[in-house]
Amino acid sequence: MTGLSGKVVLLTGAGSGIGRATAIKLHGLGATLAITDVSQEGISQTLELCGGKHYAQTLDVSKQQDVENRVAEIVASLGRIDHVFNCAGINPTAFPLTDVSEEYYDKLMAVNLKGVFSVTKATMPHVTTSRGSYVNVSSILGVRAGAEYAIYCATKWGVIGFSKAMALELGPKGVRVNVVAPGYITTPTNAGVAKGTDDAIKEMERANSLGRMGTPEEIAAVVAFLMGDEAKYMNGSVVEVDGMMK
Ligand code: NAP
């Protein structure tokens, strides 16, 4: 991956899982990071794992005014924003639609979809000035369906529609917008991992052509590729990183 050394990258949801692994990857490539997450403990740990010398503050992406304030603070502190990794999200819990509450619906929409909108809107002037890029996190459930995951599917299909429209709008300004769609990844809130049973993990492994779950580092590598110079003709792409689910 070339072209990321010295670039300023804002990451959301970087206090755990895929966001944290991506922060570590980008730190290794010489980027300057704005590490954000709703969890104070999460960002402190990620900051430490990234050498301790980056910007790191809490940010709840579902609160638009907080997003705008934080983005202004990041630009004041780091001078620019080149790339954004919209990773913050709530992984799904399986519910038959009849059991889905309005509260659950609103929460998933507010974080998984509106969060991507708010962060994109607030950062757009800066990323446009830098002619940088966005990588937004959808899911394999953003390109296919899963019974009992209707609301999560709606948010993650929404991320893809939003990203493709943004790619058309920002492409002429020299900004690329791409999507990574992970399959089952070994993070603390993955549905199978969260169940905490061997059976749940085995079920996920059996559902995969490679016979295993993916790692956060395997997603981070693709995110860094999408931001870097090697992907400079990729815009509006959705990269499925799922080991081919059956
Ligand atoms: P994770 O380990 O739970 O990390 C997600 C991080 O986002 C957590 O630190 C969480 O903080 C934070 N967060 C939650 N709500 C937030 C908010 N309102 N504002 C800012 N940060 C917030 O999960 P992950 O598996 O790495 O998930 C990262 C992204 O990948 C999500 O968008 C997820 O839907 C997507 N994804 C994951 C998988 C998978 O199998 N793991 C598959 C497909 C897609 P708290 O822990 O304090 O809530």
UniProtKB/TrEMBL annotation:
This protein's UniProt keywords: NADP, Oxidoreductase
Q: Does the keyword Oxidoreductase apply?
A: yes
Q: Which domain of life is it from?
A: Eukaryota
Question: What InterPro entries does UniProt report for this protein, alphabetically?
Answer: NAD(P)-bd_dom_sf, Sc_DH/Rdtase_CS, SDR_fam
Spell out the coiled coil positions from the record: none
One Pfam family named in its UniProt record: adh_short_C2
For whether the record's keyword set contains NADP, the answer is yes
The entry's family comment says: Belongs to the short-chain dehydrogenases/reductases (SDR) family.
Please report the name of this protein according to its UniProt entry: Short-chain dehydrogenase/reductase-like protein SDR
Q: Which organism is it from?
A: Apiospora phragmitis
